[in-house]
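Issue: ligand-bound run for 3,4-dihydroxyphenylalanine - logging full I/O for the record.

Environment: standard queue, default settings, no custom constraints.

Inputs:
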Amino acid sequence: MTTDIDALRDELLAEVAGAADIAGLEAIRIATLGKKGRITAQMKGLGQRPPEERREAGASLNQVKDLLAEAIEARRLSLHEAELAARLASEGIDVTLPIRQQPQGRIHPVSQVLDEIAAIFADMGFTIAEGPDIEDDFHNFTALNIPPEHPARQMQDTFYLPPRDDGMPMVLRTHTSPVQIRTMRNSPPPHRIVIPGRTYRSDSDQTHTPMFHQVEGLVIGRDIHMGHLKGTLEAFCQAFFEVDNVRMRFRPSYFPFTEPSAEVDIGCSYQDGALRIGEGDGWLEILGCGMVNPRVLEACGVDPGEWQGFAWGMGIDRIAMLKYGIPDLRAFFDCDLRWLHHYGFVPLDVPTLSGGLSR
Ligand code: DAH
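Outputs:
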């Protein structure tokens, strides 16, 4: 009899010792000490034994029961410790590992240049204004002193859209200048804004795409003059091209919405096949500008006797090509990942004036 119990004890102790995890151990506990467990069954069976065996068997069974309960508790502790140690090991961080590789994605040069422009003008106290790509004839032309039949309308290779319900002709905006009108009609002067955005003209070759980007600027105040215009654009060019001195030339020109008007060239030279911005005897045209035509102010309900100011407009894609030495504009919009990887910028290097624009 005792040998039966001894055998059962050894078998159960071996099972406890072999339990692989806490859940397995719990299953063993239920199968031995639980209500329908093997030890419990033996206890219940004591009554059927002859009286002379009962005492001894009862005592042995109680011993085995205590022994098992102890063994299970000891095993539970050691399994718990092992599980904790394994978790600590797997969740440990090795701070001596090399840092993660640079992210694969790249910022498109146009987005980069937009961010650079925003950083430079924000520093000069400008805010950013935006307007719709689908524009009406009034904002894109008429209010900018380009009346119907004006030859300047032909200069711009406009994409026309079906007219609005009220008969107003609609276009894809040919420049960002209509946002000057929207800004001045929406809020009273003074104004100091830059207007980045997409623009559209029916034109396509190595330096023209049907969709391109411009940034417009507008400053309106009581005593704003052309000196402010020059100073602003000079400060911009120095910051943008990241050179101490940029030679600039203001050439008389004509735009219906400015009077007087100028086109701005910056000095450049070619050295060993590479374009250098700032110095040299070559010139590159980068933008159009001028003093806002009083007729434009009038179209916006601004009194030209009291307010005046300057404006400029510049092609973003073009200055991106110049600054980053990108030869073909069409590749900007090809979505070729190899091109983007070559000319693009690392996402976490956000351009700031203090940290450096393009690094
Ligand atoms: N809107 C003109 C263009 O697309 C550029 C321009 C020239 C804008 C002179 C201006 C300006 O604000 O004053 O060619």
